[in-house]
Specification:
The protein is built from 13 helices and 20 strands. It folds into three domains: 229 residues, Isopropylmalate Dehydrogenase (3-Layer(aba) Sandwich); 117 residues, Rossmann fold (3-Layer(aba) Sandwich); 101 residues, 2-Layer Sandwich (Alpha-Beta Plaits). Helix 10 packs across helix 11. It is 31% helix and 21% strand. By secondary structure, the chain is α/β, with parallel strands linked by helices. Strand 6 and strand 7 form a beta hairpin. The strands form four sheets. A ten-stranded mixed sheet has the order 2-1-3-12-11-4-5-10-8-9, with helices on both faces. The chain has a six-stranded antiparallel sheet with strand order 17-16-18-15-19-20. Strands 6-7 form a two-stranded antiparallel sheet. The protein binds nicotinamide-adenine-dinucleotide. The site of nicotinamide-adenine-dinucleotide has 20 residues, from loops.
């Protein structure tokens, strides 16, 4: 397999040349080795000044018994590198394996996932969208529990500092790259606290960027419009799961998920990869499109200050696309001129190094040193949040196979006059008091204990409450305190409450 020959670190004497950068190279699984091989050949031919360290991670490491998918040597390689170039990996199925992608992003603090997509004639002529995806929080916090026989839970964690730095990153990216508009996508109409915070922070930080048009859309219509009217969008900022989904949608609308590149940017580290996975359905056949990884390598070169090489590769790639040389995923009979396998496509790019596209607009990284991947986010301290916090009551989640009325009677008998039972919900919808017979009830009940307005509740009462439930043989599986912040409830109502 071709790799860039390790360049001696002493080879930086020419002051005109950017310094040699050390990069950790992970060949990945499935189509990973094929597209990495093709990408490295192009980087080599273009004169990228890279000292490559092999980085072993992924399926083989998992299956060797390492549930994290990366060894201590792997982490050591990463700490010695200026950046990581990573091919997709396969996460084995089953709960014994954690996603290495998520582990890498979170361990290295790679909070921003920047995913540009452009359509190239003859596909959709008016698509030029950059998705800025929050990379560390949301449902990808990876905190899941099975709480009862019937019910499983995944925690969606959203923090103010996390929202602030991704939203600021999106606006800084837009400003540095002359982008006109930033659109925020959330589901704040349903998740009023978590997604509501993201939307609120977007509005707050947006005030620092008055020259940039800004709007907010609910994710469902936003995703639909991204597919149908991508020309209405420019930069999109959104949370982790939505960003993962909409960036695949946009890449497919632009031609193929095989074109999608991404930069995972942190304050000290950066990792570059294609947006797609290891594509086991086409692995080993030599037909995968290497463009996503190659364009991620272009983003990496710009990040490393090797703008001239990045520009040569990107323009040669545009020229190959324009010349109708297309891998299978973007090959269209009547529009494409040549069906190219992975290696042939890489050769076509190499043959065009030094050429510019004629119909498509050439990229100009060398002339304009703006960072398309941007590590340019200023270090703004997160807002220091101070609020008066009071305790209103407690939600106790109970496992029981019963009816709402029977459960309410058991709970009230167990707890006595300590604190009133205010409500029971099942899967979030109120089933007591005054539930509906049609509501499907599982074995997982949220039982809200809350004193009447004006009456106090405190942690000692919570402990006594649990003691009484346990003494009555009632199985509680989790509790959530009901806090108020500056008088505003920090908890949601039950649906139907
Ligand atoms: P996938 O992206 O691998 O494949 C989806 C479809 O797109 C397949 O039909 C595939 O053939 C096609 N495709 C993807 N990349 C292509 C390319 N470069 N050229 C041509 N066609 C391409 O998604 P999946 O099948 O859901 O996942 C497969 C594996 O990849 C899973 O183990 C998953 O966990 C992993 N995955 C890894 C990453 C990563 O490493 N960053 C990201 C996503 C998925």
């Amino acid at each position: 397999m071709a790799t860039i020959a390790p360049t001696p670190q002493t080879g930086t004497a020419n002051p005109v040349q950017p310094p040699v950068a050390t990069i950790a190279i992970a060949h990945g699984d499935g189509i990973g080795p094929e597209i990495m091989d093709a990408t490295l050949r192009v980087l080599d031919a273009a004169g990228a000044r890279l000292h490559c360290l092999p980085l072993e991670l992924g399926e083989a490491v998992y299956l060797a018994g390492n549930s994290a998918g990366i060894t201590a040597e792997g982490w050591d390689t990463i700490t010695r590198a200026d950046a990581i170039l990573k091919a997709p990996i396969t996460t084995p199925l089953g709960s014994g394996y954690k996603s290495l992608n998520v582990t890498l992003r979170k361990t290295l603090g790679l909070f921003a996932n920047v995913r540009p997509s452009r359509a190239y004639t003859p596909f959709v002529p008016t698509l030029d969208v950059v998705i800025v995806r929050e990379n560390e929080e949301d449902l990808y916090a990876g905190i899941e529990h099975r709480q009862t026989e019937e019910v499983y839970q995944c925690l969606k964690l959203v923090s103010r500092p996390g929202c602030e730095r991704i939203v600021r990153h999106a606006f800084e990216f837009a400003r540095a790259n002359g982008r006109r508009k930033v659109t925020c996508l959330t589901k704040s109409n349903i998740m009023k606290l978590t997604d509501g915070l993201f939307q609120q922070v977007f509005a707050e930080i947006g005030r620092d960027y008055p020259e940039i048009e800004q709007d907010h859309m609910i994710i469902d219509i936003g995703a639909a419009r991204l597919a149908a009217r991508p020309q209405d969008f420019d930069v999109v900022v959104t949370s982790n799961l939505y960003g993962d989904i909409v960036s695949d949608i946009v890449a497919e609308v632009a031609g193929s998920v095989g074109l999608g590149a991404s930069a995972n940017i942190g304050l000290r580290s950066a990792m570059f990869e294609a947006i797609h996975g290891s594509a086991p359905d086409i692995a080993g056949r030599g037909i995968a499109n290497p463009s996503g990884l190659l364009l991620a390598a272009v983003m990496m070169l710009v990040h490393l200050g090797q703008n001239g090489v990045a520009e040569r590769i990107h323009n040669a790639w545009l020229r190959a696309i324009e010349d109708g040389i297309h891998p299978a995923d973007i090959h269209r009979p009547g529009q494409s001129l040549e069906l190219a396998g992975t290696e042939r496509f890489a050769d076509a790019v190499i043959e065009r190094l030094g050429q510019l596209p004629v119909q498509l607009e050439p990229v100009r990284y060398a002339a304009a040193p703006a960072q398309p991947t941007t590590s340019a986010t200023p270090l703004v301290q997160p807002t220091s949040v101070k609020a008066t916090k009071t305790l209103d009551g407690i939600d106790v989640f109970v496992c029981a196979r019963t009816s709402p009325d029977e459960l309410a009677a058991q709970l009230q008998a167990a707890v006595g006059a300590l604190v009133p039972l205010a409500m029971i919900t099942n899967r979030g919808v109120k089933v007591w008091p005054a539930g509906h017979a049609e509501t499907l009830c599982t074995d997982h009940w949220r039982c809200r204990f809350q004193p009447a307005a004006g009456k106090a509740f405190n942690p000692a009462m919570a402990v006594e409450l649990l003691r009484r439930l346990a003494a009555a043989g009632i199985e509680f599986v989790k509790t959530e305190q009901l806090y108020r912040f500056d008088g505003v409830p920090g908890y949601s109502l039950g649906q139907g409450q």
